Structure formats: structure tokens, C-alpha cells
Amino acid sequence: MRRLAPALLCLLPLAAQAQDDDTAWIAETWPAGGAILEEAAQRCDTETEGGTLVIEGGAFTEEDLDGSEGGMGPDDLVIDFNHIFCSRAASLWAGTGGAPVHFVLSSGESASWTGWNWGVVRHGPYTPNVILLQRHGIVCDSFGAAPCVTAIVAEDGVFYTPISAD
User: Fold this and answer.
1) Considering the entire predicted model, what is its pTM?
2) Domain hosting residue 51, numbered range
3) 87 in a domain, yes or no?
4) How many angstroms separate the CA atoms of 65 and 72, rounded?
């Protein structure tokens, strides 16, 4: 075990570099996504006196949210704070209702809802896709563990949902 610890410590700078590369790529490719991450990093640092963002796999997903690519590939971005934490306060964004999930369109428009899992249902080429987001049961007038899903449609840079919670 003593021999393994120094080897693991050597990997920490590589993990930090990979994380910096991810956030730089997001900021360069998706300015609105970069702004979300910069605001989160500042909040983490300020509210916890020196905390830094910890970004896990699954935090960033390229996805065609609005159907504008006609199924030909992703052109939008999802930033899922269920995979992003503050090093000094792991629950800064997350709670029993999940964490913020930011949906960023290629137009730069973005919106966020608090939840857990999300997915996209495709209806065909050049028609809006439907984003399904698992939410806390109270959003559906029930209790925490009750099944609850919000449907979100993004079209022409605007997000539509049948529920105006959040």
C-alpha cells in the first residue's frame, strides 16, 4: 500500500490537467456553458473559502436537444451538476431533489432545472426533440420518492415545459 500511494499522487496533476482541458474546451466551444462553469467555480471558491470544482465523467454531454441537426449529430450541450461538485462542500448544488442540469443550445440560450437523470426522445428529422428530466416528487404534487418527470422541448432558442416549476 505504501508503494501505491506515491503513484496515485502522481496522477493528481494529470486529473487536474484533464479537468482544465474540459473546462477550456467548454468555454471555447460553448461560451454560455463556459459562463455557467465560471460562475460555479467562483461560487465554490467564495462560499467555501478556497474550494475548487471537481468534475466527474458524465458532467458534459453533447446532444441534439432541439432537433435542429435532423438527427445528424449533436449541436447542443448538457452540463449536469450531478457530476460536478465543490471540493470543500460536496452538497453545494446537490440535495434530495438532485442538482442543476443546464441545457445549452447552439444559439447560446440556456435553461436549467433541478433533477437527476435526463434523456432525449427523438420524433424524427427536423422536429423538436423532447427532453425528459427525472425530478423530485414534490414538483408533481407528491412526495420525494414518487415518480416525477418533466418534459422539456427546445425550439427556436426557447425552452417550453408543461410545468412552470423552478
Assistant:
1) 0.82
2) 4-160
3) yes
4) 12
